[in-house]
């Protein structure tokens, strides 16, 4: 555990951790000595000898113990605070370099737990828990040595109990550890489901589902409850065993002492002293057993933090210098956890042209754009942006080449203007408004009370889907990257929103290279090139007319889509 803590804190805190451990060990030894001093004090008292010098020595040891307690607590807290700072920094820095694809909803939920409770758990180890464990070793060891000094036979009796105590601790630990892992998993799953349940409230309510009707959450909570029950069933005997073994150890020393006293080998004052010592011998052990649960929790958190820190960031050489704004995929293959999604995809998007990506749902269109933005690395083949392998760009250089307009646009808590400014934080107010005007966001500002300063709320609650995408286009305008990856909105828009969006996109496409996951027939037909994906492979490629003339998959897709549109248009009549 100390090794794991040292590894997570890094070598710069090694000396501080060692100093803290040394202070704890000194405190533990002094604790043991202060216990041991009771024996000569009691012996002097009971045998009528002068007790003064022993009392003075006892007082000196007690004062030294108090000082050591203060010093080790200071050192412990210093390491705890360093752990807090270091873990926040290391986690923050590391997570910023991880592939965007790493941030799945459940990982984000667990990361939140880790940054909150997990880091506090780890901080409590050097600040509080470690001292209890070090004392549980150092104080009884000192007491044992002193017992040998007072009477070697009683010392030997105490020493013989040590292996049994150790075995009882180990057995309980292994028993609890197995249940802990199951409990951790069940707890994390329960937390994920609660977050999911909260996020999905709009959809659940739309379908008239309440907490009772959300089976995934119910199942997770039931699993958590039964795991907890199992944990209690398996750990209670274990915890009882430690307490019982400690009591048995004490009884063994008591029996050995009494039989020695009865045989006349030990005098009564000494026996009383050593028995008092035996009681104190067991105290730190019981204290350590008490903090066992907290320690295991901290160890679990430490391991999860280590697992995040061990996740390799995307390697980037940072040597690339961007050329003309183009995109090229060369024999690209990709799989999500062994499930192939893209197979041998090759395509080129020439500078300042528009390529429409079409294909059935699940054919891999979104995945393809994500590989270009390097949310993940391709499993095979090469993805090139502006003439260079994406792996050769420093992350900020690659992102300087790309603007991404998602279908599901996230608006941050803040004003309309703030939300556009995310595209380029250092932009002037005029530039922000100009980008807004080009993306037709000015019309939204006119409508909203507060205009540009209107708060659009977390997740953009006050704007419609089409309006949110216009804000996203304004961000891309402001960023002014030469390549745009666009996932066109599929949601049915009212005619006013639709025409505003079409205008905004036309302005965005001007003089830029555009790869668009196209859903609107007008966008598809007007593209310089259409790439049709099916089952993760490119099945057809060409202009609209070329592909219609080919009379293959695209022609069938087009006929079906136009028919569907015709149906929708005539339906209300
Ligand atoms: N993060 C992910 N983890 C695992 N599988 C994924 C992930 N994202 C997508 N997939 C799977 O990969 C396949 C391709 O998905 P992708 O979103 O790229 O397709 P698409 O053509 O964009 O679909 P749509 O038009 O419905 O958005 C799908 O089967 C999908 O279930």
UniProtKB/TrEMBL annotation:
A GO molecular-function descriptor: ATP binding
Residue ranges constituting the ABC transmembrane type-1 domain according to the UniProt record: 20-297
Superkingdom, taxonomy of origin: Bacteria
UniProtKB keywords: ATP-binding, Cell inner membrane, Cell membrane, Membrane, Nucleotide-binding, Transmembrane, Transmembrane helix, Transport
Claim: Heme is one of the keywords in the record: no
Bilayer-crossing regions: 21-45, 51-71, 129-150, 239-265
Subcellular location: Cell inner membrane
Residue ranges occupied by any ABC transporter domain in the UniProt entry: 327-560
Family, similarity comment: Belongs to the ABC transporter superfamily. Siderophore-Fe(3+) uptake transporter (SIUT) (TC 3.A.1.21) family.
Protein name in the entry: ABC transporter ATP-binding protein
